[in-house]
Hints:
Keywords: Membrane, Transmembrane, Transmembrane helix. The chain crosses the membrane at residues 65-81, 87-104. By secondary structure, the protein is mainly α. It is 60% helix and 3% strand. It contains 14 helices and 3 strands.
Amino acid sequence: MKKKLAVHFTDSKKTNYAYERLLLCQHCGTYSIRMQDECEECGKTSRLTPIQQVAHAWSQRKGQSSLLFLGILLCLAIISAQTLPSLIGSIIGSIVLFGVAFSLQKQLARYERSVHFRRFLYAERGKIRLALMRELDEIAVDMKEGNPKTAYEKLREVSHFLNNDPIKRRKIACLNQFVLRSDMELELDTLVPSSYDYQFVEYLRKVAQVKRSLIKKKVLDYAVAYKNEILRHENGTEILANVAGAALRMKAYVDDYYEFILEFLEYLSKERLLRLAKLASTYRTEWAELYARTEALVQARYSFDPDFKGIFQRGSA
Ligand SMILES: [Zn+2]
């Protein structure tokens, strides 16, 4: 078995939208999907500009061109006036029209900017796709050359734009080479594949041990859906018991995964059983079966354990 690697991930910058991670090199016109300081294509450091800034400048130019076009038309109208009254009329009319157009453009600027931005993104989609492809090629090389940490950090960036099963599989392949620790910025929900995947379940097993709080609805649904496949896994029962144990974090989960918890009740660790005992005694009427079976299990295994003392009415005193 290959020795696991102890790694520290580089912090990934947070953004509200994926597009905020796109930088355009003004020197060679290449996009970068990673928020880095240097263009990967030409190496320039000073010409990388966030895409919103590029699109904003594009939108401004478009607005200015429209005003310029209107200005030319109005000038033509003024020049073509043949009498003094019509000249005065067309000058006043042009000033008013231009003023209205200018103020309308100012008022609609925000809306127009967002429309222009969407158009700009659409127009640039080919170049952005190329940036993604280039990144995926680099990742393939990193993985082949045995640099899972570099590959994973790049995959993390790619997945902001593209998070399909092949990307998830590559990420999991990297993550399964690391020693996982609770202080690491780990992910789980974002890795849930669309079908049963042995490597994902293996990763889930380790995450359940070090960072149970990452197990949420999506993972619980996955565990329930692929329960039979997971049971065939080497540590299947332990994995499902840990997942069921994680569901005891909140009442809503116990309500939603009641049968699943009942099924793996007897495999829960002492710490999780203690949590369940406290929870079940609070909702004993609502969860009659869960309460009864938890109490029976505690009586059988921990009747003299002081940690469980006084939790049940007919407790183990
Ligand atoms: Zn460049």
